[in-house]
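Input (structure):
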């Protein structure tokens, strides 16, 4: 639990975050009745601000919760997030500046706009838009899971009904978020991202220095983790994964680790929120500079992932974690470490950083979803839409998407929601042929691309169901030839095969 000074720090900083969100409407004034002004901050973010904004899509509440949670529960497999973060920015450097240039020249607001223009197909663009909207929902939900973890730790000892009070606090937070996003659009999210990233960097640097020194380093944590798993085994209690019994992947998991890494590398900058952040940059050069410095975020992530294991060495943190169900202990590992090892006021600062680390990405994701709905689903049906109406629909749609994800989290267990993020990755990866290949060539047949996307989506979802025996989602890896392969890669291979084979007549035509 957290003391009074921690609560004061948390509340004061949250009020400042709220002020920044609403002040965004007055910052760098523009006509917020125009979609590119509301949704892309007028395309006027310099290298520094674009770096903060795009970084807000990387360092989220999910980063502070799900990756350390995976390490806490499953060991080395979840370390795939570290090389993935390093290599995904290479993909951004190659693809995003070109998409930005076309966006500025032709007025694109979404990647689906580019797809429609390149392949002369509103239907294909609509499929890309629907795919993006669906893939974002579990991602927003995971931001909320991270925020729940913060509130869960803070409310221990304060109330006997932690879930009810947590749900009320989350609802109030999302009402505030929806209000300033509706009012300020991406400008409010950008200012919030600056505050959030400052707090996150302070938190990461503090945690990775203080905690290892206090508890004897990572080698001690590995030993304590093994002892914990052994103690559970002695009581015939199965741990979340046998992965905790080894500290490097077994041969069967090495393929799973590699395909998770490679697939996630290509998936991140297919997500609408990552593209939305990139298109808000003021220039191609500024975007390239911001992308070049994004790997700085990956340095902290590497150590942050390992912090999930350090909870095993902290008796106070493990005492806090024991108050939660075994299946969700890992989700609370970083907030518990912050409360147990840092001064009260400083713990409040760290927890607020994690909390708004969920709110800021949720705002950007909902804006990106709203853009897709308005530009690529509604507008093709009603092309006579006025710019003001287009923007108004997007504003209300962003509110609806936020609360849809919030309602989803209220009824779905947290462990289930975290697995859904990987399902979201499988889904969004199927837009790679029309989006990334569309940046290179427009010779692919639009019907072949539609067929490939549908085939990839259908096969991906089916294989997820098979891998989980048509029950609750516990894995996104599929056994193939004695190896575990991330299903996203399998589905993408099917997608590409269909798209290329049926495009051959077009590709071979002189």
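Output (sequence):
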């Amino acid at each position: 639990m957290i003391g009074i000074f921690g609560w004061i720090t948390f509340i004061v900083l949250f009020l400042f975050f709220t002020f920044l969100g609403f002040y965004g409407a007055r910052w760098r004034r523009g006509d917020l009745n125009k979609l590119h002004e509301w949704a892309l901050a007028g395309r006027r973010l310099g290298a520094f601000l674009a770096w903060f904004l795009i970084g807000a899509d990387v360092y989220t509440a999910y980063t502070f919760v799900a990756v350390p949670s995976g390490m806490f529960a499953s060991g080395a497999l979840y370390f795939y997030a570290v090389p993935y973060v390093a290599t995904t920015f290479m993909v951004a450097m190659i693809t995003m500046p070109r998409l930005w240039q076309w966006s500025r020249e032709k007025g694109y607001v979404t990647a689906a706009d580019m797809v429609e223009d390149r392949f002369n197909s509103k239907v294909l663009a609509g499929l890309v838009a629907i795919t993006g909207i669906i893939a974002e929902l579990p991602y927003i939900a995971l931001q909320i899971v991270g925020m729940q973890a913060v509130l869960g730790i803070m409310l221990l000892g304060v109330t006997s009904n932690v879930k009810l009070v947590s749900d009320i606090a989350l609802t109030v937070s999302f009402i505030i978020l929806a209000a300033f996003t509706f009012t300020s659009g991406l400008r409010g999210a950008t200012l919030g991202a600056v505050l959030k990233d400052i707090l996150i960097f302070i938190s990461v640097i503090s945690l990775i220095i203080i905690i290892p020194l206090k508890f004897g380093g990572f080698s001690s944590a590995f030993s304590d983790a093994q002892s914990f798993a052994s103690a559970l085994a002695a009581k015939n209690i199965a741990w979340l994964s046998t992965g905790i019994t080894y500290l490097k992947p077994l041969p069967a998991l090495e393929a799973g680790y590699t395909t998770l890494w490679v697939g996630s590398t290509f998936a991140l900058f297919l997500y609408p929120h990552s593209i939305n952040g990139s298109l808000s940059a003021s220039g191609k050069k500024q975007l390239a500079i911001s992308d070049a410095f994004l790997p700085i975020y990956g340095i902290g992530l590497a150590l942050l992932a390992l912090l999930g294991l350090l909870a095993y060495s902290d008796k106070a943190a493990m005492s806090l974690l024991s108050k939660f169900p075994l299946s969700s202990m890992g989700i609370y590992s970083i907030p518990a470490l912050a409360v147990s090892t840092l001064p009260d006021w400083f713990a409040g600062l760290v927890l607020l950083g994690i909390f708004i680390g969920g709110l800021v990405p949720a705002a950007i994701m909902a804006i990106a979803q709203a853009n897709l709905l308005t530009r690529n689903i509604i507008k093709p049906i009603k092309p006579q839409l006025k710019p003001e109406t287009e923007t108004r629909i997007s504003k209300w749609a962003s509110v609806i998407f936020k609360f849809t994800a919030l309602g989803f989290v209220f009824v779905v267990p947290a462990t289930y929601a975290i697995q859904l993020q990987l399902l979201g990755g499988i889904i969004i990866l199927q837009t790679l042929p029309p989006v990334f290949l569309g940046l290179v060539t427009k010779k692919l047949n639009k019907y072949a691309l539609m067929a490939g996307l549908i085939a990839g989506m259908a096969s991906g979802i089916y294989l997820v169901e098979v891998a989980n025996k048509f029950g609750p989602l516990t894995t996104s890896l599929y056994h193939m030839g004695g190896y575990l392969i991330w299903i996203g890669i399998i589905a993408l291979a099917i997608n590409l095969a269909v798209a290329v084979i049926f495009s051959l007549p077009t590709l071979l035509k002189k």
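Notes: The chain has one domain: 4-422. Strands lie at 477-480, 483-486.
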